[in-house]
Amino acid sequence: MKNIAVLASGTGSNAAAIMDRFIGYEDIFVSLVASNNPEAGVLEKAAERGVPTSTFTKSQLNDEEFMTELLRGIDVVVLAGFLLKIPAFLVREFEGRMINIHPALLPKYGGKGMYGEHVHKAVIENEDKETGITIHYVSENYDEGDIILSETVSLSQRDTPKTAALKVQKLEHKHLPEVVKKLARSL
C-alpha cells in the first residue's frame, strides 16, 4: 500500500480528483490531506470522503520534527494548490516523491506569486495562443523542479482568465491523478 498526502491551500478541486481516483484501490490510498489554511475548502472535501485532515502554520511547516511526524508513513506528497514554499529538509526527505501541479506551462509563468488567477491573467494579457499544466518534482525553488508532464490547451482571442482557468482545470483533473498513480506504483 502506497500512502499519499495532499497539501493544499484552497478549494481542493485537484485534491478531490485525486481522492476520487483512488477510491477502491488496494495499492494506493490518500491517507492525509493537510493545509496551511484552516478555512480551506479542501479540508471539507477530504472530510466528506473520510480522509484524515490536518492543518499547520507556516512556522510548523518549517519545523522539521513537526513535519516529519505529520508525514510519517507517507510515500508520495502531492502539492495541489499549495502556496507556501517547501523547506529544504522536506524536499530532501521526499526527493523524487514530492510533486507539484502548476496551472501554466513552465518555465514561463512560474515562480513566487504565479498561481491561480495571477497565472491565467498573465497568459491572457500576453495574448498566448495556448496554456496548459506542468506537473513537476518539487525542488528548493518555486516551480524549478524537473518536469514530469506538460499538457497544452489552445486559447482563442475570446478567452478570459476565467475561461482559461476552466480549460486548465480540465487538464489538471485528467492528468494529475494518473501521474500520482504512476509515481506511487514505481516506488
CATH H-level homologous superfamily name: Formyl transferase, N-terminal domain
Cross-sheet strand order for the largest sheet = 3-2-1-4-5-6-7
Strand % is 15-25%
Distance between the termini: 10 Å
Number of helices: 7
Cα gyration radius (Å): 16 Å
CATH class bucket: Alpha Beta
Structure explained in plain terms:
With 187 residues, the protein is α/β, with parallel strands linked by helices. It has one domain (2-186): Rossmann fold (3-Layer(aba) Sandwich), CATH 3.40.50. Helix content is 37%, strand content 22%. It has seven helices and seven strands, in the order βαβαβααβαβαββα. β1 (2-7), α1 and β2 (28-35) form a beta-alpha-beta unit. It is globular.
The gist of it:
37% of the residues lie in helices and 22% in strands.
Task: List the defining traits of the structure above.
187 residues, globular, alpha/beta, 7 helices, seven-stranded mixed β-sheet
What's the arrangement of secondary structure elements?
Layout: E1 2-7, H1 13-21, E2 28-35, H2 41-48, E3 53-55, H3 58-61, H4 64-70, E4 76-79, H5 88-93, E5 98-102, H6 116-125, E6 130-137, E7 147-154, H7 161-186
Parallel strand pairs: 1-2, 1-4, 2-3, 4-5
Antiparallel strand pairs: 5-6, 6-7
Helix pairs in contact: 1-7, 6-7
